User: What shape does this take?
Amino acid sequence: MLQISELSKVYNTPKSAKGAARGKSEPTHKALEPLTLNVTGGQVYGLLGPNGAGKTTLLRCLSTLLTPSSGTARVGGFDIGQEPEKVRQILGVVNGGMGLYDRLTGREILEYFAGFYGMERSKVQSRILELDSLLELGDALVKRTMDHSTGMKQKIVIARAVIHDPRVLILDEAASGLDILARRALLDFVKSYKAQDRLVLYSTHVMDEIEEVSERAAILYKGRLLEEGTLEDIRARAGEKRLENAFFELVKAEEGRLVAS
Amino acid sequence: MRTHFIWLVAWKELISTWRDKRTLQSTILTPMIMIPFFIIGLPLLLGSLIGGQQLEKQKVGVIGLERIPAGLKAALEGDKKQNGTVISRGVTLEKYSGDPQKAVQDGTLEAVLELPAVLPSTAGGAPVSIKVYAKLSSLRGQTGATSKVQEAIRAYSDTLVKARLERSGLPSQTLTPIVAQSVDASTTEERRSGQLAFIIPLFIMQFILAGGMPTAIDSTAGEKERGTLEVLLVSPVGRLEVVLGKFMAVTIFALLTALASMVGLLLSSMLAGVILPAVLGSGREGSSALAQAFGGNLTLDVPTFFTLLAVALSVALVVSVLMVAICVYARSFKEAQGYLTPLLIVVSLTAVLLQFSDFLNAGAAFYAIPILGAELAILDVVKGRLELGNIAISVVSNILASFVFLAWALNSFKRESVIFRS
Assistant: This one.
């Protein structure tokens, strides 16, 4: 479902805001070092790492928002550089914030995004019904999102990402800022979505979330892939019982390697 | 390029903006109220104030009232009539012996006259002067007591001269062997548009900017700030389709505002011709000039209206795409407002400078400057100096500039450093 091959990203760090506006920059920041990874469908794959590890950069490259500096990736069989639109057609994304259009109702937002996937009107309505029963959208569909509670917003954000039933669903720090109920609803949905050979890429810095929803994960740190495999393997290789401790061990080793080099 | 995607993007922006009541207010109501207010309301208001001063009997102190000649007293206190109607009332004279400046400053008296020891009752001999203490910088003074007193003194002086000439057997025209007779060579439209006609392009420009601005900011910087732009760009819609959709929505609102300001202008033109002459045109002195100054006699025929509309539409196009191109750089709503401020200043300043356009020999090159050319063209249309060639140049230059700015906006939407600027 996902083949990443030697993909890297170097940001042109702007010298200043004015410089950025004028396009003046200097290539300094390696956000992602060449990374190779194969991920099969039918699972929730965890992407673990602290802030600045390169998770968001990787996900933005995979969702064709950023152009990799080198290497490439295939999502659902489509090359992100050669067939970006086909990639976006099979992709759903929930990013960190809960950005919605304030003056639109939940239903209008879902219809708006469905329009870009070429879905027929009747298909859109039946899909909204389906998502309503799955996510209990209720009032969120008829109220303007400026009047939504956090939980309602989160439900619409998820429904928006999966309105076209994407084969690959990317969640980037999707649970941040959620209350306990909304977080629970999100994690339950994520676990249910992996069926039918669909892939969920779940990116977070919260170990508990990964342990709950994923069987496999990759750990990124300062743009490098530190470890990849089943959670059990990762824990075993670090000689730790808890994923969090395994993570700290791996980071400590990496820091030692960086200092030595 | 898929037109239904462009429409879809535009639809979302339109519905979002439409549901914001403040936007509706600035887009449609403000121009339809502000323009009639300026053309009809302001002259009516000022006319009423000036007319009120004309009909009021102000208190004027006189130092040496016992010496005032009867003729001058009559000129100061007498009412002026036209067709049996009082158009300007005289002043009330009071004997005064204190500090004249203080009396005027504290408002006890509107003006104070200080008569000389000897005031001639006939012309001849050394001229004398009457000191008039008044607030010369005050509009109230200028249109009330000060002007009445000065006019009465001048009239009394003229009476003395006339009497002296008649006693000498000379006709009163002796002192004015040559008189300059001015003939207004302005076109009817120039006369009707008034000295403040430059305000009309300024209004139209301001309303177009105000109409498109909320959508321009919300659809670019606003989307970035909310984090929805990233989500939109992950969908299969192309960047060009996104830019065109947003551009279309901004243009529609700018056009709507342009149309509303045109309707405001048309309504003002129709109503001003009836209301202002009826209220100000007869009776009160000096008031009818106000209507003229504010463009209250402006007339818009159908070809003029549509020419103005065509120019306004081209301005709406270029301004809309320019705002989208600028706002996409901003990270937040607030920042975008800051970025647009210089544009507002430049457009307003050039429109204000149009009042000096008589000093400018505006050749075709000026009309080819986007936005400025349109401002000149609108002023020409209002003043009846309509030249289709210049109008066409300004419209075409705006359209060409729109394509350039569109390319700029598209380039910005494709740049990672702009979309993910943080």
Q: What stands out?
A: The radius of gyration of chain A is 19 Å. The beta strands of chain A are 2-14, 25-39, 43-48, 70-75, 78-79, 91-94, 168-172, 199-204, 216-221, 224-230. DSSP finds ten helices and ten strands in chain A. Residues 2-90+166-260 of chain A form a domain with the Rossmann fold fold (CATH 3.40.50.300).
